[in-house]
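S1.2 Input.
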Amino acid sequence: MNEAAAAPPATDTVGPFTLTPLPYAEDALAPVISRKTVALHYGEHHRTYVEKLNDLVKGTEFARMPLDEIVKRTAAIAARAAIFNNAGQAWNHHFYWRSLAPKGGRPGEELRKRLDRDLGGYDAFAEAFTKTATAQFGSGWVWLVFDGGTLKIVTTSNADSPMARGITSLLTVDVWEHAYYLDYRNRREEHVREVVDQLLNWEFAAQNFGAG
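S1.3 Output.
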């Protein structure tokens, strides 16, 4: 996924990578995620990762690479940790915003059958996903992935992602504090439970599942 190619730039970010537009208005996820949180999270945190990445890759081989390729190539190289952290967070956030939708709904037939087979059904998935996210120590992400022919729930820390290891990601929820603290303070479980119940974009998950 090359963030620069995903949509026309909507900001003044300068460089090969741009802060692509949100797929909905900043207040569209309320009341689960407030406009104030989206404005801070997208307009400041996400933007900063993109801007820092552009500074770091200027004049390097990475300036001409797709974003996901940068993440994969720098994931295990200590000397490239700064590039990995900012590229990873730019990719993760781009994916996160598209993992949400104002009317999330429920999975379609194919993913519903997969959830039944691999995770005990939708309700069991929702509970396990929420508990796994809540148990993630410190900053990170909770993911629904398709790995080895099976749906799984996994977490990653900081800027890491399953994509960095070649695993197909279907959905993610950000559990860094800036994703929920203005609205929920330290109540991470409540935040994730509301996101899972009301905002997960199962059409996006189905597209990723089909592509994987």
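S1.4 Remarks. The two ends are 13 Å apart (CA to CA).
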